[in-house]
Amino acid sequence: MYQVTYGEDVHNLETRAEAIVKAREISSENRGIVSISDEKERERMTYQGGELISYDYETRRS
To answer: pLDDT digits over 7-51, tens only?
Structure first.
Protein backbone atom coordinates (compact mmCIF):
# COMPACT_ATOMS: atom_id res chain seq x y z
CA MET A 1 0.00 0.00 0.00
CA TYR A 2 1.29 3.44 -0.95
CA GLN A 3 0.05 6.84 0.16
CA VAL A 4 0.11 9.83 -2.19
CA THR A 5 -0.19 13.18 -0.42
CA TYR A 6 -0.79 16.65 -1.85
CA GLY A 7 -1.56 19.20 0.85
CA GLU A 8 -4.51 17.74 2.74
CA ASP A 9 -5.50 15.41 -0.11
CA VAL A 10 -4.47 11.81 0.56
CA HIS A 11 -4.85 8.91 -1.86
CA ASN A 12 -4.18 5.30 -0.85
CA LEU A 13 -3.13 3.05 -3.72
CA GLU A 14 -2.29 -0.64 -3.82
CA THR A 15 0.86 -0.59 -5.95
CA ARG A 16 3.97 1.52 -6.34
CA ALA A 17 3.27 1.96 -10.06
CA GLU A 18 -0.25 3.32 -9.39
CA ALA A 19 1.13 5.72 -6.79
CA ILE A 20 3.78 7.05 -9.19
CA VAL A 21 1.22 7.62 -11.96
CA LYS A 22 -1.09 9.44 -9.52
CA ALA A 23 1.74 11.62 -8.13
CA ARG A 24 2.87 12.59 -11.65
CA GLU A 25 -0.70 13.43 -12.61
CA ILE A 26 -1.40 15.56 -9.53
CA SER A 27 1.97 17.34 -9.63
CA SER A 28 1.68 18.24 -13.31
CA GLU A 29 -1.82 19.68 -12.80
CA ASN A 30 -1.01 21.67 -9.64
CA ARG A 31 1.76 23.78 -8.24
CA GLY A 32 3.36 22.33 -5.20
CA ILE A 33 4.95 19.13 -4.06
CA VAL A 34 3.35 15.67 -4.06
CA SER A 35 4.83 12.99 -1.83
CA ILE A 36 4.61 9.22 -1.91
CA SER A 37 5.42 6.87 0.95
CA ASP A 38 4.97 3.16 1.48
CA GLU A 39 3.09 1.79 4.48
CA LYS A 40 6.27 1.35 6.54
CA GLU A 41 7.62 4.74 5.41
CA ARG A 42 10.84 3.12 4.25
CA GLU A 43 10.47 4.37 0.69
CA ARG A 44 9.66 8.02 0.04
CA MET A 45 9.44 9.97 -3.22
CA THR A 46 8.66 13.58 -4.00
CA TYR A 47 7.28 14.89 -7.29
CA GLN A 48 6.92 18.42 -8.62
CA GLY A 49 5.77 19.44 -12.10
CA GLY A 50 5.32 15.80 -13.05
CA GLU A 51 8.97 14.99 -12.33
CA LEU A 52 10.67 13.05 -9.54
CA ILE A 53 12.70 15.52 -7.45
CA SER A 54 13.75 13.29 -4.56
CA TYR A 55 13.91 9.62 -3.68
CA ASP A 56 14.80 8.12 -0.31
CA TYR A 57 14.91 4.48 0.74
CA GLU A 58 15.69 3.78 4.38
CA THR A 59 17.74 0.59 4.67
CA ARG A 60 18.40 0.73 8.42
CA ARG A 61 14.83 0.32 9.66
CA SER A 62 13.71 -3.11 10.75
So the answer is: 999 999 999 999 999 999 999 999 899 999 999 989 999 999 999
Of 45, 22, 48, nearest in space to 9 by CA: 22
Strand partners, 54: 46
Number of H helices, E strands in the chain: 1, 5
Prediction pTM value: 0.88
